[in-house]
Amino acid sequence: xxxxxxxxxxxxxxxxxxxxxxxxxxxxxGVSTMTIRRDLKKLDESGLIxxxxxxxxxxTEVTYEAKRVKNHESKIKIAANAAKYVHxxxxxxxxxxxxxxxxxKNIMNINNLTIVTNDIEIASLLVNSDCDLIICGGTVQKSxxxxxxxxxxxxxxxxxxxxxxxxxxxxxDKLQVMTPTIEKAxxxxxxxxxxxxxxxxxxxxxxxxxxxxxxxxxSDYTAVITDRxxxxxxxxxxxxxxxx
Length: 244
What we know:
Elements: H1 3-17, E1 19-21, H2 22-29, H3 33-45, E2 49-52, E3 55-58, H4 64-69, H5 72-83, E4 91-94, H6 98-107, E5 114-117, H7 120-126, E6 132-135, E7 139-141, E8 146-148, H8 150-156, E9 161-166, E10 170-171, E11 176-179, H9 182-193, E12 195-201, E13 213-217, E14 223-225, H10 232-243
Helix pairs in contact: 2-3, 5-6, 6-7, 8-9
């Protein structure tokens, strides 16, 4: 079994049981405990599982409160730049997330906006604004205060947006945008198709991290607003994917 296949099997075992010990994984997969520990270290660094004493546990979504305080100053600056693309009378989609929450703060007083969001915190903020506010129906993920699922996707298909702002849980070294939840991946793909302009707004901490489900490529967005300085190799990847 190749290391990639073994690590995928480790992820599946942990996802199904919630927790797995090193000894159990080594016996089940027919390798040494040292090999398993190396695998767990790599998976933990990639954000796919969480290591604990003697083994590992299932990775959970980062809570909304934890996201809000992380790199807050960078998110404020990114949001201010993003808001420059919003003008009177636009139909705007705001993806769930703390950077898009900051964007909401910046655009909430622009005239005649229609704003659709799947973020409960953003909706709560915009209740006190003059915009026409629409919130997606669907399943609520309480830890991230976001809405997703079949009903949200079905609803989104009925809209056409002038512009949409999106966040990301992680972006890997191939510049693929990723998420821990497959339902969120489906929803984001659908929303982007409904946007005339799609903007990914992410701070540097989201890069060089793996996730479980691929949403799309960085080049699939109209623009990316970030505080990251792209390396020459990343710029080459962007140019290549943009031309393909």
